[in-house]
Design a protein that fits this description.
By secondary structure, the chain is an alpha/beta fold. It has five helices and ten strands; from the N terminus they run E-E-E-H-E-H-E-H-E-H-H-E-E-E-E. Helix 1 crosses helix 2, helix 2 runs parallel beside helix 3 and helix 3 packs across helix 5. The N terminus and C terminus are likely disordered.
Length: 198
């Protein structure tokens, strides 16, 4: 595809991509693939998506036997090392049960490794397996998301951060690294699942 982004009538480009949760599939004998085989196949799918000219490849976080993609950013890093232009993102990163500082650092690192092709979509967690896994209560569902996404928005400014809340330790004028190489730090993008770093 020579022109990957055909303009729509309103002047905005149309982009095409794939979004997956990395479901375990079966082999030729009908037996489920191992988690390792599933993850390696996902890397190959991302590489193929780049080769055929798709614009985006996104992997959603899950913590189950049938969707073993608990570290999508690691898989995206493997795809980044074998691709050159496709944008790589999280189909959703469950910010509510993760640490915003670490999420920022992981995706800023992926952005560096990929040459500026990383995206992160932050979500509340419609599948809630990660909450008990990391010691969070579902009764705190809204508060966890609101506080952590607010902190993440501050981190995107790439300036010293002062923040306090009830869901993690406070930050008092601390800088978080790595910074992006762009002249303009990342901004938040709204989505039905949360917000994104673009």
């Amino acid at each position: 595809m020579t022109n990957r982004s055909a303009p729509r009538g309103d002047g905005h480009p149309i982009t095409l991509g794939l979004d997956t949760f990395g479901d375990v599939t079966n082999d030729a004998q009908g037996q489920p693939l191992t988690h390792g085989e599933t993850i390696r196949n996902l890397v190959e799918e991302g590489v193929l998506a780049d080769q055929v000219g798709l614009d985006h490849f996104a992997i959603g976080e899950h913590h189950t036997d049938w969707m073993p993609l608990s570290a999508a950013d690691v898989v995206l890093g493997a795809i980044a090392s074998r691709t050159s232009r496709i944008r790589l993102g999280s189909g959703v990163t469950v910010i509510s049960s993760d640490d915003p500082v670490r999420v920022y650092q992981r995706f800023a690192t992926l952005d560096a490794v990929s040459g500026g092709r990383a995206e992160v979509i932050l979500g509340r967690g419609s599948s809630t397996e990660s909450f008990p896994l990391f010691g969070y209560e579902l009764s705190d569902y809204d508060r966890l998301f609101e506080e952590k996404v607010t902190l993440f928005a501050e981190l995107l400014k790439e300036k010293p951060v002062s923040w306090s809340g009830t869901t993690r330790p406070a930050l008092d004028g601390l800088s978080v690294f790595p910074h992006s190489e762009s002249d303009t730090p990342c901004r938040l993008r709204s989505s039905g699942r949360g917000v994104g770093m673009v």
